[in-house]
What we know:
The chain is α+β, with helices and mostly antiparallel strands and about 230 residues long.
Amino acid sequence: MYFPTITLTISLSAALIPLATLITGTPSPSHLERRKHHDEGPPLNFVYIMRQDIDYSDPEAHLDVYAEDGTVAYQFVKKTLDPQKGVSTAELTTGDSDLVFNLDSTDDACGHDSVYEERERTGSQTRRVEIYPRGPLKDVWRLNYFDSDGVRRNFKFNRGFSDKGGSIYTQVDGHDGDLIAELKNEKRKDSWLTDDDDSKGVSTLTLFCAEDSPRELLIAFMGIGLSRVNECGL
């Protein structure tokens, strides 16, 4: 005598399954692929460190970029050539002061779209860093370069709302792909970085990046980020 009730319950459950699918939606293959890329990526085994307690009183001073063992791997400086016109140049050199590349800008001004670009020359990758302010919202930061096959590789920096740190992803059809780097605000207590007055650690901006990432562009990007925040705030 209970069979009709069981049949009715099963029938209602079967009818509700398509309805639930319609309500919640089924992720499309492209969405799943983007989510897969977003969540996965190569190990971020390469580490570069810049102090945040920087003395900007000397605009010509080069800022040290340390490897994890404390050696000066690179140096960075951003020089303002004409503040009225927004002309500046960001320079990355090796620890031995050999030039790696320059990124020049003609629109380097707070509150305005700014592009820093490597001049085209033989062997250059025409590296670019792009900053798009959005008022009270988070700025949009992008970077890209041409690879050896002449294909422009695009990346996006997803920065914290009131933070210099964030994550850098490849861009795949306008969406976040693999995670290739992270910038983190840290308090580091490395012996080569601290002294007796730094028992609580030294504030750093630390770059963690993948082996096959555009590491030198990412290092310059870190330097531009520190300089930009010093000049314009978050």
